[in-house]
Task: inverse folding
């Protein structure tokens, strides 16, 4: 069965937090080239790796990964805030 | 890809030299292509870290790297199996062989039997290993 593409925000979150690919790779226990593959969405991680990434960023897995193209983070955060206020 | 071309060119020069007579052109050709083979292997495989990756123990690899090595090993196994069988069949058939009856001087050839056994092994070994290791629940 052909694997479906998973979209993710790893690159955006990593850059926003000023972490290098090498540092992220060391913290989640993969080669830094694998981080590149993940950020380019050329590789779907295992469930274990997805959780390690989510735990490292202290974010829910479904905020980082999605089977559908993701909206920009600012837009999603604004929606969340709007939802709370309203 | 260039590395395989250089190795093939070296082998051609080497075989012509060995089976004919070595001339200065053949010697220099063989030396140049051997040097190019080594250099291209170093530049394409060693420098980018692919050799180190392939020689690493499984515990030192992450999940994507293991997948990459699994796919490379599967493809290599298939290519190596086909090339070995073609070469072995060529060697067996080159020994004054009757292709139609598959016999050598009226007797079934041991060489052919070994090639057929290898053919069987190449096809059956991977699923056999899976059958030994997997718990199949019906």
Result:
């Amino acid at each position: 069965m052909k694997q479906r593409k998973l979209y993710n925000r790893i690159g955006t979150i990593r850059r926003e937090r000023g972490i290098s690919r090498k540092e992220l790779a060391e913290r989640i226990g993969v080669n830094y080239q694998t981080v590149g593959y993940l950020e380019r969405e050329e590789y779907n991680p295992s469930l274990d790796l997805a959780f390690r990434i989510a735990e490292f960023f202290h974010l829910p897995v479904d905020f980082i990964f999605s089977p559908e193209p993701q909206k920009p983070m600012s837009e999603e955060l604004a929606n969340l805030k709007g939802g709370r206020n309203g | 890809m260039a590395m395989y071309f250089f190795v093939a060119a070296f082998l051609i020069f080497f075989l012509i030299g060995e089976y004919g007579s070595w001339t200065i052109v053949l010697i220099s050709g063989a030396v140049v292509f051997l040097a190019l083979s080594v250099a291209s292997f170093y530049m394409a495989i060693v420098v980018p870290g692919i050799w180190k990756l392939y020689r690493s123990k499984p515990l030192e690899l992450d999940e994507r790297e293991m997948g990459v090595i699994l796919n490379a090993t599967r493809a290599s196994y298939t290519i190596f199996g086909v090339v070995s069988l073609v070469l072995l069949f060529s060697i067996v058939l080159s020994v004054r062989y009757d292709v139609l009856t598959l016999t050598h001087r009226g007797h079934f050839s041991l060489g052919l039997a070994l090639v057929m056994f290898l053919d069987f092994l190449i096809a059956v070994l991977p699923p056999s290993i899976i059958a030994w290791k997997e718990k199949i629940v019906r």
